[in-house]
Amino acid sequence: MARFVILDELQVVVRVPADMPAAQLRMVRRTLADKRWFQRLRRGVQAAFRTESALALCRVNLTR
Fold first, then answer.
1. N-term to C-term CA, the chain
2. Rounded CA gap, 62 and 28, in Å?
3. Which helix (H) or strand (E) holds 30?
4. What pLDDT, on a 0 to 100 scale, did the predictor assign at position 24?
């Protein structure tokens, strides 16, 4: 029997200005692809869940 079931899924959308210069756009993409940045995002989301007692027993998984 499954120990956890999916209750909800959240989506993050990153938007940039349509006229953003190519060099700056590359920097944004490089940042979003950076493993350390993604780890910081994951830790931040997990920390936000820990601060709410109603969410304390929930498991959170971030994927790309």
1. 27
2. 19
3. helix 22-33
4. 98
